[in-house]
Design brief:
This protein has about 600 residues and is an alpha/beta fold. The strands form 4 sheets. Strands 9, 10, 12, 13, 14, 16, 17 and 18 form an 8-stranded mixed beta sheet that branches. It is globular, with a radius of gyration of 27 Å.
Length: about 600
């Protein structure tokens, strides 16, 4: 018995020690993978940039040590990295062309996809080739790939080209069955963020605005594809109505959306011909990571001037979810902006906004910090996929606002919601009572419905918030307040329509915004710096949250979408009373 216990204890000790050693080795290997991948890359002659698009697209991304450790093959692409790699490929004389391997590239909207597409179009200006190949093209990926000189498709492949749809989720009946009432207070005919809680379908006003911005988005997409493919917009719409996804691949060629049906094994030989490589020689290719690490052949700027790009991405304020980005922490943003304001080397600031909005209170605080910064140096806003509601609030006082035609912006409106769980309490056999010293002592508690006086006070509070929002926009844009009110009302506009209405100044991407900021600061030589800095691998490990990992890497697609809706509802008591948020997920596909 004594020997048995001794051997058992030794075995357990060995297992524990082995596990610890394996964990340490895994960490060492992981860090080795991360840091070894930063080695500078030399480009061989007649090379091809192999741009594999198979992951999610967000504003900024970096290697996730947990994904490496857990063997998760899903990739997160940063728009900044993609655009930088494409620019480098254009400038590198040994890169003869780009081969896009189209697999999957979910993005928050079409503005990011257009930015990638425009960068590829600029690459073609160098006279180099672009070839795209896909076994299956999603519609968003085809939009990007259609800029290629040749679009290749697997003979048994599929190409999605169906037009756009928006499919918001409504769950008022579910709340009714549970005995939960959402008491809603809003200003803005088109402010639809509250509709999932108050009805089981779109209001006529919401349907009107969604129809309008979908038509604007689709108009831009079809115009771009038409210009690249030499197929009329009318023919593209006819192709969309044929449901090409379920048609034989030959139909895609007949419609002019693809050029050649070819198997993947034969693509390399085709690329060798284009790159001028002998059929018997190897074709040298570089992936995105390698292209990112190619040294740029530009002299280092010695002026000391900095044009800062500050990224404000995700929902504004704590308690709101629904973005792949971390979210906008008002306190941190304000501190960072103050540092940029006080840094004498920073000559201009570009605020990159990709946000559907959030807390009206936090939006006002960030607005104030930007107003102070604007007094010291030029401030230019660059809008990404979204800069709506609170996202527009923090943008409206910039010297210049730059948006993509496919950006969703506007949504100038305010709402507040207070849950009432009285019905639920009765269903589960719970009774609530109250004693108070004054009339409004239990105001806002979710244990009962609000009375008429309380509703009146709450509605007045929301209307004051809306009036302040109108004032900020009118002052920032140099417009009459009534004029702003006519185009506000919570209505969402595309960047193209916002330009017509005076809500933005210029159509373009981040590069255009940087050019404008440098010109306003009157600096020709400068270094472009991005803020806030990306987290190191160690910082990511220290901040690791298992729940966040599950949401980001496991619960994607429809499952993740429903999780975010439920989580958003569950956090309603934690968020600020006033919210400046567009319909949180337009669910455009």
């Amino acid at each position: 018995m004594k020997d048995f216990l001794k051997f058992t204890l030794a075995t357990i000790t060995g297992l524990i020690v082995s596990s610890v050693l394996l964990f340490i080795i895994s960490i060492v290997v992981m860090f080795g993978m991360l840091y070894s991948s930063d080695t500078e890359v030399t480009v061989r002659e007649n090379s091809v940039f192999r741009l594999v698009l198979d992951g999610t697209l967000s504003e900024r991304a970096q290697e996730d040590p947990l994904s490496l450790l857990m063997g998760d093959e899903r990739r997160a692409y940063g728009l900044d990295d993609l655009l930088s790699a494409i620019r480098k490929a254009k400038e590198e004389e040994n890169i003869k062309g780009i081969c896009i391997e189209a697999r999957s590239l979910p993005a928050d909207g079409y503005a990011s996809l257009k930015a990638v597409r425009d960068a590829l179009a600029d690459f073609k200006e160098s006279g180099k080739f672009i070839v795209a190949y896909g076994d299956t093209y999603t519609q968003g990926l085809y939009y990007v790939a259609s800029v290629a000189d040749k679009v290749l498709l697997n003979p048994q492949g599929m190409l999605e080209w169906t037009g756009l749809a928006s499919t918001p989720v409504f769950f008022k009946d579910l709340l009714d069955k549970a005995g939960i009432e959402m008491q809603v207070f809003k200003v803005g005919t088109y402010k639809s963020a509250v509709e999932p809680y108050t009805g089981m379908g779109m209001s006529e006003a919401n349907r009107e605005q969604v129809t309008d911005f979908l038509a604007s988005l689709w108009g831009q997409v079809t115009a771009d594809v038409s210009a690249s493919r030499g197929v009329s917009v009318e023919e593209l719409n006819q192709a969309a109505d044929r449901m090409l996804l379920l048609q034989p691949a030959e139909e895609c060629v007949e419609c002019g959306l693809a050029d050649t049906l070819i198997y993947k094994n034969d693509v390399r030989d085709y690329l060798k011909q284009l790159a001028g490589v002998d059929p018997d020689d190897d074709l040298h290719t570089l992936g995105l990571k390698e292209m990112t690490n190619v040294k740029k052949n530009v002299p280092k700027d010695k002026s000391g001037n900095i044009v800062a790009v500050y990224y404000a991405c995700g929902a504004i304020g704590a308690g709101l979810t629904g973005s792949t980005d971390e979210g906008i922490d008002a306190e941190k943003v304000i501190r960072d902006l103050r540092r940029l304001q006080e840094d004498e080397d920073v000559k201009a600031v570009v605020l990159r906004v990709n946000s559907p909005g959030g807390s009206a209170y936090d939006s006002e605080q960030i607005w104030h910090a930007l107003e102070q910064l604007k007094q010291e140096k030029p401030l230019v806003v660059s809008m990404g996929d979204y800069a709506a509601s609170g996202g527009y609030y923090i943008s409206c006082n910039a010297d210049t606002i730059v948006a993509e035609p496919t950006t969703l912006t506007g949504s100038i409106g305010i709402y507040g919601m207070v849950p009432n769980f009285e019905g639920l309490s009765r269903k589960i056999g719970v009774s609530l009572d109250a004693v108070k010293t004054n009339a409004f002592g239990d105001f806002g508690l979710p244990t009962r419905a609000m009375n008429a006086d309380e509703r009146g006070l709450m509605q007045a509070y929301v209307e004051r918030g809306y009036d302040l929002f109108l004032t900020r926009v009118a002052d920032g844009r140099g417009m009459d307040k009534e004029e702003v009110n006519r185009i506000a009302q919570g209505r969402v506009w595309t960047g193209a329509r916002a330009l017509e209405l005076g809500l933005v100044d210029v159509l373009g991407g981040l590069d255009r915004a940087v050019e404008i900021a440098a010109a306003k600061a009157d600096v020709e030589a400068y270094t472009l710096m991005s803020y806030p800095g990306k987290k190191s691998a160690w910082e990511q490990l220290m901040d690791f949250n298992p729940g966040d990992y599950v949401k980001a890497h496991v619960l994607q697609g429809e499952a993740g979408r429903l999780l975010r809706l439920v989580e958003d509802f569950g956090q309603r008591e934690e968020v600020d009373a006033l919210q400046a948020v567009m319909e949180f997920e337009p669910n455009i596909r």
